[in-house]
Amino acid sequence: MTKLIVILFWTVLSVGTIECTAQTASSTQRKAGEQGIITGADQTEEYLPLLKGKRIGLVANQSSIIGTKSSVDSLLSLGIRVVKVFGPEHGFRGNASNGAVVKNETDAKTGLPIISLYGKNQKPTKEQLADIDLLVFDIQDVGCRYYTNINTLEYVMEACGENDKELLILDRPNPNGYVVDGPVMTDDRFKSAIGIHYTPMTHGMTIGEFAQYLNGEGYLPKKCKIRIVKVANYDHDTPYVLPVNPSPNLNTPQAVLLFPSLCMFEGTAINEGRGTYMPFTILGAPALKGKYSFSYKPVGIPGMSERPNHKDSVCYGLDLREYDIAPLRESRQINLAWLIELYNAYPDKAHFFAPGRANQDISAFDLRIGTDQLRKQIIAGVPEAEIRKSWEPGLQQFKDIRKKYLLYP
User: Fold this and answer.
1) Which residue intervals define the domain Peptidoglycan beta-N-acetylmuramidase NamZ C-terminal in the entry (predicted)?
2) Where do the DSSP E strands lie in 55-145?
C-alpha cells in the first residue's frame, strides 16, 4: 500500500512537472512570438558552452539581464565561474550620477570584485585581465556618440587586443537604431570623454555592430578577437522598449527616444530635465519666464543629478512627455527645431552656449556635437534645411561605411 502511494505520488509529481515545464516553454514561446526580439543574453544555449570551465570576466551594469535576472547572478547560478565584473559610467548597479567618478568596490550581493571603467581606469589593465580566460560584454546602448558605453566598448576591445583575450558580445537592440543623423565628428579638437568616434551624433548601430566598426575602421592598435551572439528577430526599424532603464536619467521609454535630440541641450543655458524625475522629456530655463507657461523646478537628486543646471530655480519651457515620436521615426532624424526655437526665445543669447572648461574657443556644446559649426550656424540664424544640408556629404559617407558592419537589416 505504501509503495503504491509512493508510485502514485511520483507519477502525479512527474506529470505536474511535465505540465509545468510545458507551460513554461509555451509561455516563453508566446512571449517570443508576441515581442519577437530575443536579446543575445537570453539565448543562453548559444554561449553557455563557450563559458563552461573558463574564468569569466563580465562587463556589465543594471541593464545586463538574462530574462528578468541580473546576468551576473544568472551565470553564477548556472555554474559559470565569474571571477570579476567591470562597470561603466553609473557603476555596475547603475546608481551613480552622470559624470560621477565610480570607485572599485566589492559587490555586496555576490562578493565579486567590481572594477570601475569610469574615472582614471577607463581601460582594463593587464593585471586585471590576467586571471580571465574570456571577457563577456553585455551592456545596453542607446545609439548616440555622447552616450559613453561605446567609449567603454572601445577601451575594453583595446585591452583585449593587447592582451590576447577574446571578447564575447551579447548583443542588444538599439532603441534608436532607425536614425543615423547629425554632424560627423572629423576634427580631433572635439574629442572628449563624451565623444571619441568619427561618427554622427546618432550612429544607428547595435553594440555588436559598433564593435565590428571599431575593428574594421582602425580604431584599435591591434584588432580584438570578438564573437557576437546576435539579437534574434531584430532589424533597425523594429521598435524596442528597454526592459531596464539604461541609466538613471533615461528612466522612461520617452526619455530614451528623445535623448538623441534633447542631450544636445547639455552645454547650453537650457535644463533638459536633470534634477527632476522627468529627465530628457522636458526643457526649460528661468530666463524663459513669460514665454512659456509650462514650468518646473530642478533640485539635487542623489543617484541622478546632484547639481543640475538651474538647481532650485523655476524653469519655463517645453513639456515633451506626451510628444508623438512617430514623426521622428518617419523622418529618421533628430529634432533640431527645438534647439533653434529655444535659442531664438532666449533673451541673453550671448550666454546661451556655455563656454568650454579648458578651451574657450571650443564650448561644452561643441564637444557634445563634435563640431563648432552647428553652434555658429544657430547663432547666425541659418535655416534648419541649410544646416542639415551642411551635414552632407559626411553623413552619407558614414552611412556607406556603416553598411559594411551591419548584422541586421
Assistant:
1) 257-408
2) 55-60, 65-66, 69-70, 81-87, 105-106, 113-116, 134-138
